[in-house]
Queue: 4 jobs
Job 1
Amino acid sequence: MLIHADANAFNKLLEGKGTFIVDFFATWCGPCKMLGAVLEKVAPEIPYDILKIDIDENVKLAEEYEVMVVPTLLFVKDGEIIHRESGFFSKDKFRALVQAHMQ
């Protein structure tokens, strides 16, 4: 499920036990829009929530996690970031990333 979140929601999830993906994006970013379309299509197929965090609305959070490029995805398992991936990629690559890092 895609969830538009802010720093509070992200920090609350990070404190808990669970697995989720964070999409740091910007509304003005072309590759972010393209990846957003990929995530919308693939989200129903995966058992993990995808938090969408707008870097312009959550500047401190983006700085804290050293997001220098958008889009940037963080793969989180039990409060620990286990993988980071930046830039646009296809549905197949996203599925492969989920399988490699979240299983």
Job 2
Amino acid sequence: MPVIAVFAALLVVVVFLARRRLAVVTVRGESMVPALRPGDRLLVLRGKAVRRGQIVVLEAIGPGMRWREGPLPEVAATDWVVKRVAALPGEPVPPECPGLPSTVPPGTLVVLGDGEVSADSRLWGLVPADRVLGVVLRTLVSTS
């Protein structure tokens, strides 16, 4: 088999695996300013274990879905949001999230935006961990 054919086959496998593990997401809104700005493009690693303090991309609340009682902003089910993990299962809930249990239950996270105005666990409550698309590895293109 010629070297070029082997290289081409290997390249196809690498691209296929990368597409399954990596995603590119564009930041919309200002909830993560100053760390991230609207228009920033982020490289996201799917399936990586989440740690407190990491920035994650998670599935937004869609119409008819509720994580917490009360009115919620309408967001298309296909949208993604970018937030920072503030607490993991078994950890204390941050004081800026009143009305939640004192400890984060299994299978859930507390996420917060870095900006002054952010729809996050203060509004949504505990976020199901299975809503996380992945962990932000780096900013690919920055608007700042």
Job 3
Amino acid sequence: MSEAFDCAKCSESLYGRKYIQTDDGPYCVPCYDNTFANTCAECQQLIGHDSRELFYEDRHFHEGCFRCCRCQRSLADEPFTCQDSELLCNDCYCSAFSSQCSACGETVMPGSRKLEYGGQTWHEHCFLCSGCEQPLGSRSFVPDKGAHYCVPCYENKFAPRCARCSKTLTQGGVTYRDQPWHRECLVCTGCQTPLAGQQFTSRDDDPYCVDCFGELFAPKCSSCKRPITEHPVRIPSLGPDPSPLPPLPED
């Protein structure tokens, strides 16, 4: 009489049937799956012994159930991301959660270099100076009405220019006859002494220090022979919004 060869779970004979051997004994296929198989987190069905099983963060999946929750692309052999317990392929993740470049409109891929300013995002190579169109990168820039300029382009385009040398004034400066001047450019027409912060007067729009004006143009006192000069003026420094000077005395 042959020895019994029964399923360790249901005790049915396994002679002539497919079975799976375990440390606890042999199991018929249905009993084995019911006892040991994991439940698919997607379809809630058992993952049979003959199915390819995928595992991610304490969740088990049939191979066919392991897919992007948006486009349904299989993630079995694809890079993916988990967002709020949902599996997403890289394309869907970038489309849903990544920023769009304000210049080219393309997605700024996770991990790529990007620049952010004023609530907007750019690819590093798309963030360009509105003047020279060179990448700004980590360089200093000046925003102006939605545009962005490197410092040289901004100064060349917007900074005031000296009435004498026509070069830009980046800081400091003085105002004379409602025009900006470099402090070093506003000098006495006669002796070339700097006039910024000093008392001076003018003739034919040319500024003169008090001494030169007196020597060159002022009438001389018949008694002491010294020049009789008008009241000179003192010019203010050029601020962010310089105010015009009062009219100069007539010659």
Job 4
Amino acid sequence: MEHRHLGRSGLQISAITFGSWLTHDSSAADSAKATLRTALDAGITTFDTADVYGRPEFGAAEELLGDTLHGVRRESLEILTKVCLRTGPGANDEGLSRKHILESCHASLRRLRTDYVDLYQAHRFDPRTPLEETMTAFADLVRHGKALYIGVSEWTAAQIEAGAALARELRVPLISNQPQYSMLWRVIEAEVVPAAQTAGLGQIVFSPVAQGVLTGKYLPGTQPPADSRAASAKGSAFVGRYMSDPVLAAVQRLKPIADEFGVTLAQLAVAWVLSRPGVSAAIIGASRPEQVAENAAAVEVKLDDDALARIDAALVDPVHGDLVERDPAKTARPFDVMPAWR
């Protein structure tokens, strides 16, 4: 497994990072633990979760991760979690206030069965709390050894710049951003990536296979498989944006490129993400162990300039034009208008 520095920090993380959004909850604990063990066997050392993942009623994914990793040498792991989204009924059970950050961190540490997390991330930007309050709370966690580094997720370029300025003043190691990024969703390229690189932040990207669309399992003119994410109420809320026939046809045009490299479409999609400037790691989610092994192998795929150009060409439709979403304005989605379970 390849390891890369996260931004300009000294921290190295596995280029394939194992995530637990949508795949790890108490209803499928045995399967989730099996995929986690497969990830360890594949050399993955970095595990990303959040206090809201897995529900009931919040913290289930952290508990599962903590139980599965218990007994593994802690120094050999990088454990990442997040804070911001609603985790209870109280007025202070969401956001990036000092109260919610500190209380949430302590609760996450208990569930993860660890004394510290390697990276503690602001799950979204909180427009209702002064940024100084948020960054000072993070600084205190770092000073007390509860978090070694700080990161953000889905922040705009302006928010990253403001947070990085305060981090420098407070001497807080703000080193990462966690955005959505794939061949089909490139909204971070114009503004977020340059701002993050200037500030020394690396990208730990999620949804590199566009919620499964870039695996090629969804075909134009057909209904999604009954057991697929697109067929579920929760999954379809995210995968639905890609389910048009022009996009699904474009994905099929990528298959000859994957075949030339001797890889699956999923591996091609992950390899593409890992080839992009500023990307430190790609988060994979898996419900079955074989999916972990497949995606982990993508680190060995090195795409040349010709392949990258052909990928871009395949994603242009003769009638509808460029099928890639590039609008920087779609980076931002305030936490207070998001579904609580995300």
